[in-house]
Amino acid sequence: MVRGSAMKSTIRREGPPDDAVLAGRPAGAQRGDARGGALKALAHPRRQQMLDELHRGGPATSAALARALDLNTGATSYHLRELARHGFVEELPERARGRERWWRAVPADIRFPRRGEQGAEVRALLVGMDERGFAEDVAAFHRARSAAPDDGAWGDAFPYSRGTVTVSLERFEAFFEEYLALLAK
């Protein structure tokens, strides 16, 4: 699943965000497979929101994430530790001050098991993730569209295209890899 977001970050941060991150995936990001416990950890809706926010806006504290996502700090800290246990986020000790802990999303090209390798539980998790992701994408599209200027270069640059193409399985898989490489640039 590949998703992007046109939302602006709502977290106030000290220092610059990770400049290397584009669409959540920096150049040279490692590929990882999400299976078992890692997939369950990632499938949790609040954890997805937290991970998306860290990809979009860069490093943040659990308190900043809690404010941005309307959660309590205890729940946010717990979810961050679970994401860290499976390698989706990591602490930034160099930014820590006292008990304040900073977290960042670990850059990675996360892949899910192919449909033929999925059991019923995994398929249900992925369907839920897809449904939430598509709903978030539609909402982000509407926000971006309504915020786009009606004229000028940015208004003209907001793309819209729709079409259908018939390709072989091999060509589709190659296209998908090319698309991910483009996002990583």
TrEMBL record:
Transmembrane segments: none annotated. Residues 1-34 are annotated as: Disordered. It comes from the Bacteria. One of its GO terms (molecular function) is DNA-binding transcription factor activity. Residues 37-131 form the HTH arsR-type domain. InterPro entries: ArsR-like_HTH (IPR011991), HTH_ArsR_DNA-bd_dom (IPR001845), WH-like_DNA-bd_sf (IPR036388), WH_DNA-bd_sf (IPR036390). It holds the Pfam family HTH_20. This is HTH arsR-type domain-containing protein.
